[in-house]
Every structure is written in C-alpha cells, then in structure tokens.
Design a protein that fits this description.
31 helices; mainly alpha; 812 residues; Helix Hairpins; single chain
C-alpha cells in the first residue's frame, strides 16, 4: 500500500494537465467534476496508504519512496522522494479530504463564471503543490511545494483580476510571502553548510549535534518562513485581503492548505526547535499568543462576513504557534485538524450566504436568514460552536489542550490565550446573530441611501425652482414682446387713420356731375379709341373712392390688431404675476426641503439591528432603484453541490475532537499516532486530571461569557455597540495605514536607494567587467590581421629578440 504514495500528488497534477488541454471542451460543470474526482481519488489513495502505515509497528511507521535523483552534486544530493510517516499522512488526509469537498462546493459556487475551467486548473495545481509540500522528504522539495502554493494563491486570490482591488490583493499576498520565503532559503543554506544535507531524515536525526547558536539560527529562519506563510505578526497583512478571491479559494487557503504549511514545517523540524536556545521556542509561543489576541480584537469590529473569518484564521493560527512554542506539537496538529473542519465549514457557509444574498457580504445587511437558509444556518452554527470552544464540539477539545500546555509552560501565555478564546466566542456569536437572527435587514435603505434620497428631494425642489424662474423669464419676455406689438399696432392705427382722412378728402373733392358725365361718355363712346379714353377718365375719377374704401378696411384691421395687442399685453402681464407667485412658492419648497435634509441626515456609523429604519414618505420616491430591487429580492438556499460539503464538514466539526480527548484518562488516538514523528520531542502534560478539568471549565465559562455578551448586545439590543466596535479594531489597529505611510515615505526612499545601488553598483560592476573584456579583446584583435606577411614579420621580430637575449646572456 505504501508504494502507492506517489499517486497522491500525481492525481491532482493529472487533473491540472487534463484541464489545461480539455478544460474548455469539457465546459461547465464537467471540468469541475473532473477536478473533484482527481482530488477525491487522492483522498482514497491516502486512505489506503494510511491503512498500510497503521499496519506497521509504531517504530516502523517511517517510509521514504524515492522517485529519482534530482540534484547530484558530489557528496551532496537531493532526491525527489516522498516521506510517509504519521505526521505527513495526517496532513495528507485532511488536505485531500477537505479539498475534495471544497472542489465539489466550487462546482456550484462558480456556476456561470466565464473562466469556470481555469478556476479548477488553478485549484488542482494548488492541491498538488500542498501535497508536494507535506510529502516532500527534504527541505528543498518542501520549498518547491511552498513556492507552488504561494504562486497558486496569487493566481486564485486575484482570479477576478479585472477588479483592481482583487489584483492588488493577489500581489500583496505574493510579495508579503516573499519575506518569509527569504528566511526559508537562508535556512536551507545554513542546513547545507552545517549538516551537509537537506533531507529530513538526516537533518532531524543530527539536530541534537548542532550547536546552540546554529540550531537557534536555523530555527529562527524557519520560523520567519512560517510567519510569512501562516500569517503571523507582523506578516499577517496579506491574509485579510486574500478574501478578494472566490470563497472556495478562501476556504482552501484558510482551512486545508497554505496557511497550515508554516505550522507543519515547524512541527516537522521540532528536533531543531528543541536543540535551539530556550528563548527561541518562547519567542514562537509569544508571537503566536499575541497574534491570537491581536487578530481576535480586530475581528470584533469587522462587518464583512469573510473578513471576520479571515482574522479568525489568523487568531487560530496563533494558537497553533503557541502550541508549537510550548512543545505541544501533537496539540498543534490536533487543533490544525479540527480547525480544518470548522474553518472550512464556516468559510463555505459564508459563501453559501453570499451566494444566497446576491453577493452581499456586509453582515449589517443580513439578519433573519435562519428561516430562509436553514441548511446553511444550521451547519454554520455547528462551526460557530466548534470554534467558540463549546463542548462537545471539536474546537473545545483541541483548543483546551493548547491552553493546558500554555498554562503548564507559562501562566501569562495561558491568560493571553484565554482572553483570545473569550474574544473568539464573542465575535463568532456576533457574526451568527447578525447573519441568521434578528430582523431581515436586506431590504432596508442604508443610511447613505436615505441621505442621498433627502438630497435628491432637495435637488428636485431646486430644479423645480429653477424651472419656475425660467417661466418668469419667459413670461417677462412675452410681456415685452406683446408691448412691442402693441406699440406697432398703435403706430399702424395712427397711420391708417391718417390715410383714411386723406382718402375721404380726395373722394369728396371729385364732383358727382363729373363722375356721372364720365360714365355717360364711356357708354356713348363711338369707337375703340374714344372708349379707351373715356375708361381712363372714369378710372381716374373713381380712384379716390376706391382708395377711401381700402383705407377704411386698413383702419378696421389696425383697430382689431390694437385690440389684440392690448389683450396680449394684459395676458402676458398676468402670466408674469402667476410665474412670480410659482417661483416664490418653489423657493419656499426648496428651503423646506433643505431644512428637512439637514434635519434627517442619518448617522452612517451604526445600523440599528433590531428596529427597522423609519423611511419618511416624502423621500420614498427618491430612494435609489437598488432599494426597490432589494425589496423584491428573496434569498435562496444553495444547490446540493454546495450543501453536501457543509453537512459533511459539520459532522467533522462535531466529532473530530474524539481523535484526542485531552484528559489524563482520555483516548489519545492522535497523540499516540503522531508520536513516532515527534522523535521524542513532544512535551507531555504533567497536569492532573482535576487541573485540566478546571482549566477547561474556566475556558468554557469564558466562552459562554463572550456568547452572553453577544446575546445582550446583538440579539436584545442592550449595551453600547459603539463602545465594542472601536475604530481601532475596525481599522485593524491602523497597521495597513502605517505600512502605507512608511512605504510611501522612508520606505520609498530606501527602495529607490536600493534600485540605484542595483542599477549603478551591481549592474555597473557586471557591465564594467564586460566592457573591460570587450575593450581588451578589441585591442588583441589588431594582432590577428589574417595576413601571412604580418605573422611572418612577427616571427622574425620574435626570433631576432630571442637571439639578442641569448647573445646578451652569452656575453656575460
């Protein structure tokens, strides 16, 4: 069975290669099922190898499968081989098992994503890298897997890279981890220099022979690598931002792969830690304890459901480092296993909530989801009770074993760990209550949205006022135009009146007898010429009468136009008055709207979790369209591919604690199983059973106190939330801002100086040497002309010089 171990990392690698070639052809969901099947196959093979290892006696549970020689360098060589022992197989079992569940979950979560197959390509590569890390039989092979998970975290965290924040989060994770990787690399150089080998078998067996200074240096360098990979102070800053990736990635990183790598490395090299000076393990313990409390304090004030879990992971990893520092290596692995179950459960549960809530991640917008997402809520609560340390859930057993080790080693470490445990119970209860209980808040307009509605109402009133002023201006222009028309009509009437008087005078001046005589002449004309002459004479006499008729018609029209113009002026003046009245009314409305807006600006820093916000009817029509969309939205439960892993993980979170009951009369399955891998370096608890029970009771009481406070504040609405959710907690103790200021100020100058040194000194030395070689070669090239006569001359000159030298010596 043990010979099958090479298949464990090979299957995810095969899945990676298959999806590269056929992923797009397979499409959705087959590409996801192929990736899931490969990881599930690794889990099955791991179970077979585990069974083969169990069959061996404890002292023989150590097997190395060498595939080929990789780096042959005389007496120093590195093979590609896999180390099979209780520690590596424990890691392999929970990595492959939980990763398979996460893969299945991702099939449902990533449905509809245009890069569906590419996501599973990265996911399979991630699992392969983690398996290479834990199965590698040397520091170098572990480092290859170490870098592999780092590269995959970059690819997956920034998977949705079109969003600048996601791309920046991926780069932040990659760059921060390089600091820790530098320590890992130096540790490998030191191991080669002192031991002459990177193989674990030789390094760990010879660890007691290493001098204290060397062992301490090696331990601290490896610890630096672990701090970067497992997100401890001060290199934790990348992990909260890693939430930018899809939720299955968050679960894989936080529960089953990357962040546990640092703890695994320290447990693997435990003989080196034991050989180091005592203050080195103490440093590890204190960094872990402080990180646990520090991250827990930040999680208290986070409102993003995934950010709470991110800081929770940092805090729980702090417990693992605390356990390693006090020598409780099996306790660290025990909590790593239980943490893998409940943290994967919590992250996937959070993803199910996000999926059901239309990708909303702000817990202040949740509430009352227990009835709407019953399976998600029930399984999430199991994870909460496990991480809160409530018996008999798994987290209670593993966390309390770490606290017992801390109590035995240093009371102060125990106190710090206990306070962190109380804070953990509180902030996880807060997350559960804000998400699944209380009233449903998703449809509520936010304070900012109500503020915008009041502003929109005031802006609408101002627009109406501007329109009213425009109407006044238009009416005033109409009055001016009407008055101009009236003036023109009056001028036209005066002219028409004058023309009429003139026409009357001209018509009166024509004698009637002359007019009658002209008409008679026309009638009696004898020939054409006489008739034409008579017609002309008659027309001349009739023209004044016709002009009079026309002038009277024009006079009538002018009088009508004048009347119309007077009416238009009257109406226009009335319109101006009405417009001015409306404008004044609009100004009053604007003033009232502005006053309302200033009085009704809501407080944006705190959302009432119990009472629905009062929405003034005056602004209802001005609320953003998103509010109407949310009012019509109904949360929905996730598909079976997402719910099945939740149920399985909930079972693990409930019963995984049975692996290593921590009391003196308990069943130490895991501790006994791991004992061969500890090489006798495990610190066994010397506390009595009564003491352990009392310590557990204190921890449980503290956890229940944290939960009780959360009930009072977040379920009953009693107490001051603002006093708890301090800005320092919400902004992560201002660490990111401080780093940004340093990087932009002194850090920037330092980086610029390093860049100048690299360009001018390092590159200058290399390029200068090249220029010297090039110029020397150019000078020597003049002697190589290609002409025989030149070479003959050189031979002759050389011969003469040699002869002269011989003759000069002979003369003496």
């Amino acid at each position: 069975m043990l010979d099958l171990v090479w298949l464990i990392p090979a299957l995810p690698l095969v899945g990676f290669l298959l999806l590269i070639v056929f992923g797009r052809r397979l499409g959705e969901p087959m590409a996801g099922y192929v990736a899931t099947a490969c990881v599930a196959g690794s889990f099955v093979i791991a179970c077979l190898v585990f069974a083969g290892l169990v069959d061996r006696p404890g002292e023989e549970r150590f097997f190395i499968q060498t595939l080929f020689e990789w780096v042959p360098l005389g007496n120093f060589s590195v093979d590609v081989g896999f180390l099979v022992d209780p520690l590596s197989m424990t890691m392999v079992l929970f990595v492959t098992g939980i990763a398979a569940l996460i893969h299945l979950y991702a099939v449902g979560y990533m449905a509809g994503d245009p890069d569906f197959s590419k996501f599973f390509i990265y996911l399979n590569l991630f699992v392969f890298s983690m398996l290479l890390l834990v199965l590698g039989d040397s520091l170098l092979l572990t480092f290859v897997g170490w870098e592999g998970v780092g590269a995959c975290s970059y690819l997956l965290v920034s998977f949705w890279f079109t969003d600048e924040a996601n791309a920046s989060a991926g780069k932040k994770a990659f760059v921060t981890n390089r600091i820790g990787d530098f320590g890992f690399m130096l540790a490998m150089f030191l191991a080669v220099f002192t031991v002459g080998s990177l193989n674990y078998a030789e390094l760990l067996t010879r660890a007691p022979e290493i001098a204290g200074v060397t062992a301490t240096g090696l331990a601290l360098l490896l610890f630096l690598g672990a701090v970067g990979k497992s997100a401890q102070l001060p290199l934790y800053v990348w992990l909260p931002d890693a939430m930018a990736g899809p939720t299955p990635v968050s679960a894989l990183i936080h529960a089953a792969t990357m962040v546990t790598a640092g703890v695994y490395l320290l447990v693997r090299v435990s003989p080196v830690l034991v050989a180091a000076y005592d203050w080195a393990p103490d440093l590890i313990a204190w960094v872990g304890a402080i990180t646990a409390l520090f991250a827990a304090s930040i999680a208290i004030a986070q409102n993003d459901i995934k950010k709470v879990l991110a800081y929770s992971t940092i805090s729980q990893l702090g417990y693992l480092f605390l356990a390693v520092g006090v020598g409780g290596y099996s306790a660290a692995i025990f909590h790593m296993v239980t943490h893998a179950f409940f943290k994967a459960l919590l992250f996937l549960g959070a993803g199910s909530v996000i999926h059901g809530m239309h990708h909303e991640q702000d817990m202040r917008r949740y509430g009352g989801l227990f009835k709407l997402l019953p399976v998600t809520a029930a399984t999430f609560i199991v994870g909460w009770l496990a991480i809160a340390g409530v018996p008999p859930f798994s987290g209670f057993w593993s966390k309390d074993e770490i606290l017992a080790h801390a109590y035995e080693h240093n009371l102060a470490l125990w106190l710090v760990g206990l306070v962190a445990a109380v804070a953990t119970a509180f902030y996880m209860a807060r997350e559960v209550f804000m998400t699944f209980f209380g009233r449903y808040r998703y449809a509520d307009p936010t304070p900012a949205e109500m503020d915008e509605a009041w502003e929109a109402r005031a802006a609408g009133a101002e627009a109406s006022a501007r329109d009213a002023q425009g109407v006044v201006a238009t009416a005033s222009e109409a009055v001016a135009s009407a008055r101009q028309q009236l003036e023109a009509a009056e001028v036209a009437l005066a002219k028409a009146t004058g023309d009429a008087h003139s026409a009357e005078g001209a018509a009166a001046a024509v004698p009637a007898a002359d007019l009658e005589a002209a008409r008679t002449a026309v009638a009696e004309a004898a020939d054409k010429d006489a008739k034409k002459a008579a017609d002309r004479a008659l027309k001349d006499l009739e023209k004044p009468a016709k002009d009079l008729e026309k002038s009277r018609t024009a006079l009538g029209k002018a009088e009508a136009a004048l009347a119309t113009a007077r009416t238009a002026v009257t109406e226009a003046e009335g319109g101006v008055g009405e417009a001015e009245t409306n404008a004044a009314s609009a100004g009053t409305v604007v003033a009232a709207a502005r006053a309302d807006a200033s009085r009704h600006v809501p407080t944006p820093t705190m959302v009432d979790l119990l009472e629905a916000p009062v929405v003034d009817p005056a602004i209802d029509e001005y609320l953003a369209p998103e509010v109407a969309h949310r009012r019509e939205f109904h949360p929905h439960e996730s598909p079976w591919q997402m719910l099945l892993p939740l149920v399985v993980l909930a079972g693990g979170a409930l019963v995984a604690g049975m692996l290593n009951l921590p009391f003196s009369n308990g069943v130490h399955f895991l501790a006994n199983w791991l004992e061969p891998s500890m090489l006798g370096n495990e610190v066994h608890l010397g506390l009595s059973g009564v003491t352990q029970v009392l310590l557990a009771a204190v921890a449980v009481a503290g956890g229940l106190l944290g939960i009780a406070v959360a009930v009072q504040v977040y379920l009953r609405g009693q107490g001051n939330r603002g006093a708890i959710e301090q800005p320092a907690f919400a902004r992560a103790w201002f660490v990111d801002e401080t780093f940004a200021r340093v990087a932009a100020g002194p850090g920037r100058r330092f980086f610029d100086a390093c860049a100048w040194f690299d360009r001018n000194v390092i590159d200058g030395a290399v390029n200068g040497l090249a220029r010297v070689v090039r110029s020397t070669a150019a000078g020597l090239r003049t002697f190589q002309t290609g002409y025989v006569r030149t070479y003959a001359l050189g031979v002759a000159v050389g011969a003469v010089a040699l002869l002269g030298l011989l003759l000069s010596k002979a003369s003496f």
